[in-house]
Amino acid sequence: MTKVAERYTQSVENELPDEDRDSLHTLAISVLPVKTQIFRRARLVKNSRLDSVIEFFNGVGCGRGQMDLRHTGKFLALPEKHPDVELLQKVGMLPSFDVYSLRIQLRAHGIIIPDGCALTLSPGKIEALSAYMATFTRPLVAEIFSRDTEGSQFRDIVGMFRAENAEAVRGRLGKMADRLGIPVEAIPKFLEDYGDIFMSLSYYRHCLDELLPQVQNFMDGIAMVRASHQLAQDRSLMGVIDMIEEMINGKLANITGKIESFERSTNDMWRNLSGERFQRIEALISGYHTSIGGSLCAMSVKMAAWTDQFPNATGGVGRRAAFIMSDMRQGIELLQKSAEDDAPMLSALNG
Fold first, then answer.
1. What are the boundaries of each domain within the chain?
2. Contact by Cβ (8 Å): 164, 145
3. Whole-prediction pTM value?
């Protein structure tokens, strides 16, 4: 694999692909402060068992050149406890590679990102999230311009400022600044923070919506396994199926409830706007990034693995049962209920 990997890395430009910017389960290593060139042209990937592996190449006709992080240093003849290898092993333990979780987790581990702009969604993904952002954009723009803004997008705000009467806009911004307890000059920073925090919710909602059809495909598959008279007698298999189904349904309900709570709280915030209230909402949403991102990452990887194996009704129940007991079962404990799942939501937001 070494020669193939070397040829591949030499041909790849040192750019950050949109796929890695927008992904829950892949991370371009060039984002991280590593110096080993072969690493900088590779990426970290969560495999179907939710283990993080380093992927040196991935292409049609040559497959995927992936390696367990534990063996990478030895394979590349790097010194024991090489700083780049230790850094990758530390990052590989993170539950999700989405940009919002990474901002929090990397900072918590003292890992400084050379280019902070790398931890942002791609322009294409931001465009795709515009419909989701409308939930959070409309009350903001209505507050500023005092009119219905259906169809307006967050990026339209600057243009709307220019199109409005300057004196009227200054007056409205002054009132908003007073309610927030900040100077008018700080409004742009507030808008930036507002856009970013609610873009994160739009991103997670989008990921959730993309996940649901795959979950349904999986549920249809386990229904086929349960319908098999022979397999239904396998108590171990049925126990694993029940456990996975309960975990997935419970986690989906929990994530959906959190996102909907935040969405409802947005309108409430604008009815009684204050800087302290926004900061409380911002902090609470940020506090759930790691939990939501990690859960969505785990489920997305698992459901993608199932869909790849069984894209439709084809495939015997025996194969499905074997895959459940191997790849689907491994690492599923990451979806176990955590203490924060029961943390008060609306009371913390609206208290």
1. 2-119, 125-184, 204-350
2. yes
3. 0.87
